[in-house]
Amino acid sequence: MNLFQSLVVGLFVVLAVFTVSAGMRGAVRKRIVAFWLSVWLAGSVAVIWPHSTAVIAHALGIGRGADLVLYSSVLVMCVAFFYVYTRFRRLDRQLTLLVRKLAIQNAHDAAGQPNPSSPPSEHQ
Amino acid sequence: MGATGRWMSVTGQPGPTSATGAQALVRRPRATIVIAAYNEAESIAEVVRELIEIYPHVIVVDDGSEDDTAQRARAAGASVLTHLINRGQGAALQTGVSYALARGAEIIVTFDADGQHDVADLPELIAPIERGDAEISLGSRFLSRRERIPLVRRVVLRLAVLFMRVTSRVRLSDAHNGLRAFSRRAASGLDLKLDRMAHASEIVDQVAASGLPYVEVPVRVRYTDYSLKKGQKSTAALRVAFDYLMGRLIR
Lengths: 124, 251
Fold this sequence. Notes:
Low-confidence stretches of chain A: 118-124
Strand content of chain A: under 5%
Strand order of the largest sheet of chain B: 1-8-6-7-5-2-3-4
CATH superfamily of chain B: Spore Coat Polysaccharide Biosynthesis Protein SpsA, Chain A
Oligomer: heterodimer
Number of helices of chain B: 10
Low-confidence stretches of chain B: 1-27
CATH topology of chain B: Spore Coat Polysaccharide Biosynthesis Protein SpsA, Chain A
Radius of gyration of chain B: 17 Å
Shape of chain A: elongated
Number of domains of chain B: 1
Helix content of chain B: 40-55%
CATH class of chain B: Alpha Beta
Distance between the termini of chain B: 16 Å
């Protein structure tokens, strides 16, 4: 292996270790661990045997191995972006529910109805 | 999720004159008004004062304003709820509706904070619900002929109506009017999850899915320099559509 290969593969190994340990701590779901491990593995294979990408590319009808790497990284980025986007929406939603709960609770307190879960009362 | 709501239109009926309308609203002041307000200090007091003369229960949801919207609304006599962080108009309306229901409201009206709606339209808006003809009453600026709507705004709103016809299969003449009335039953079924401006389409969806009878009622919209400045830019329509479609895609 030349210097570039050792550095990049070393980096992928470190990332894989982080990924597995995060999975074991339960911080990341198993599906996500598997996803990232396969990314690190595929990256390592492509760096150690550069011609392997050409073989797969030809099988898929893509001219060059480098193009295959480019296309698949764009795809991976899209998937990752979508995942982050859904996560963002979920957080956004939770924040709204929290803000709403506080607003209603404070209003009930101010109106002298300390218990918002009590049955609804008619307006005076 | 078919659009099972019964379609009733009150087009063609000029409706009672404003004098009889005013009498009707003096007799039955039982609607609760919900206003979502974000940095509306300039207009909110006037809007609340006009409403509260006739409808004593006005709830203003201050959506994390940086100006003194909340103080002015409170001084004008409204019950003020405060979103500690700005969450958008859809979120604020849902907060106001939930609170109104908890306080026992029988009819809930949503009203914009920028003064674009006319209090005189409320009796006719609420009447179908009071009569039991409908559970939901939606204001439409396109059913009344008197309107002077800026051209670009008119085109965008018409496109929005077509968009709703495709996505929700609901035929409305004006799907994006902030003036709406809900019976207690209909309001209880609302669960707005799109916090920003796409809530207008979401309301239409939920109205359609509920299968409750709804009507459209002609209302006036006053396009003032202030309301046009504060309101949505027509160019925001694409972002709103994106937000709406993503909301349907991702639960």
